[in-house]
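Section: Multi-chain targets

For targets with more than one molecule, the full set of components is provided together so that the structure can be written out for the assembly as a whole rather than chain by chain. Components appear in the order listed by the source. The example entry contains two components.
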Amino acid sequence: MASLKDLRNRIASVKATQKITKAMQMVAAAKLRRAETAAAAARPYAERMERVLSNLASGMKGSPLAPKLLAGTGEDKRHLLVVVTADRGLCGGFNSSIARLARDHARRLLADGKEVQFLCVGRKGADILRRQFPGKIDDVISLRETKNVGFSNAQAIAERIVDLYGEDKFDVATMFFSKFKSVVSQIPTAQQIVPAEIPEGDEGEDLLKGAVYEYEPSEEEILDELLPRNVAIQLLKALLESAASEQGARMSAMDNATRNAGDMIKRLSLEYNRTRQAQITKELIEIISGAEAL
Amino acid sequence: MDTFQFELVSPEKLLISEEVEHVVVPGAEGEFGVLAHHAPLLSTLRPGIVKVFKTDGGEPERLFVRGGFADVNPKGLTILADEATPMAEFDVSALDQSIKDAEDDLADVEGDEARRRAQEKLDRLKEFRAVVS
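Its structure, encoded as tokens over all components, is:
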């Protein structure tokens, strides 16, 4: 049986842990709010970009002039998986659920006799995948030093992907990231980014159907600029969603940890008090029986 | 005078969304003005200043954009800017820095096509520097 001193130490240590998890939860909550606003602020651009792109691309589809980023290489053999995870742990199942989705996808592709490469954004996903797919990790990009993820970060990664594509290193790129739904629910999502998937235009497009666009400079040149930018925007969206999800996941993980620590403290205090009382009773019995013996 | 819906968005946020009468846009092949009922047009931008006239002839709101796209459609004008800063907050030293970066890039690049692009970028920045000062 644990002595009183052991129990006291134990309680103190659990209390200290609880303080840390509580603080982490509060930090995550503050960061979450910021990340959510950033994700919301980036949405209008992505939406309008999609509209412009679907306008342009619907006319270009099937045309032999269509850039490779839109039309694809005509093959479906080599796949690049872009896995967006966090750089830090202690956020519940956040990293492993994205890695699992990417892993299942990769296994399916491998089973079909295709080639797979990974580009990891965030070290945690790379740590998991490196064990399962040794030698397939192309590179790991860490955003640990960046405090607020911005367009320039996304652009740098997008440039890498587009360059790799330009050098004919892969045929299809798919991005895995966590979509932020709410604090308790983040949905691991897969999205194809190269060749670009053009969303079907909504009703608003009817308005433009009849209109003939003028292009300055030419249609192809605009598409050439627009498509790499689209990759960057999709990445930015993923990075921001992922950042918000990470904080959300951490917040609920830390909330659980704080609660568990609370339960543990309660249990330990109970045991401590029982032991203390038992000891007092024992001492009293010793004194009384000693007195009686006289 | 008729107004139209004008939106200026950068990847990080929506800067302007309002009814205006006249906007002057720094297109890749020259500045152009947009009034209500403009014909549909899609143009790339060069670094420059967007002038927004809420009422024609009034004092314009000036914003710096660093490249992007302008989309004129029957619903209005949308500018997708890579980066947009209101002129009042614009930092000239940052521009000087990016000119310097562009010069370094030019010195580093290999290949004719890449060199041509780097040179073009530098020229645009220099041209823009002349506009602000």
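The CA atoms of residues 5 and 19 of chain B lie 5 Å apart.
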